[in-house]
Amino acid sequence: MGNQSSGVLVATADHLVKFRQGDIDAFESLFRIHQVKVYGWILRIVRNPAAAEELTVESFWRIYQARARFDASRGFEPWARRIATNAALDWLRIRQPDCELTEELMPLRTALSADPGVIAEIRSKTAQAFGRLPPILRVAAILAVVEEQPHKEVAQALGISVTAVKLRVFRALRLLRKDLERQGITP
Amino acid sequence: MSAHDENRIQHLLRQALPPVDAEPGPSRDLWPAMLRRMDSNAAPQQRSRWVWFDWALVAGLAVVAAAFPASIPLLLYYL
Question: Are residues A73 and A146 located together in one domain of the fold?
Fold first, then answer.
């Protein structure tokens, strides 16, 4: 298990070294320390709690398999986030039907965030149009625009530069606008 | 696309897909699922080792039978 400091589990350098050597106990410690953050990151991308749980397990399985390539100097969390992002991207690539995405997003909508001035139909069409974007653009836009994650973190997670993130976000928004215009919605 | 248009699209997108809660957690402990995943991936390797062992045994018996034909009745007796 990880060291406990004020009730919070903390990974030590020893955990990381043992994890690299394939120690299951060290891996369990890292899993318990990071599972909530990894799950939260994946949920932000796939927006489906059940899928996010499965993908968290999948991500940690990939992490365990790739333990020999882990560079402790770069930190566990950014590395885990990168692997989790790839797992989530793979999931998005397989799940093409756009209307399913919209239905999954419904439970995540909160009354506080809903603007009464915006018609529900427009919101629904926007979500559908967003679901039709290429997954690689969708991930950049959802993390940078919707979740307002720092561009640097998004870039690290996607393994690209900050400029490339901005470019993907721009392309996503432009494609979204064109799709909405085709449906007769002028933002 | 102008900066104004970009802001409008961003606003629309945020309303269509509100951000996830600050620190969402899984509904259950995922470690048991992780262990199951590790076990299920370890099992085929174990099976393949047995397949290799079986073939080696068969090959050994074939060599013995070919080199010492007189041992065939003895091998059949023990099978």
Answer: no
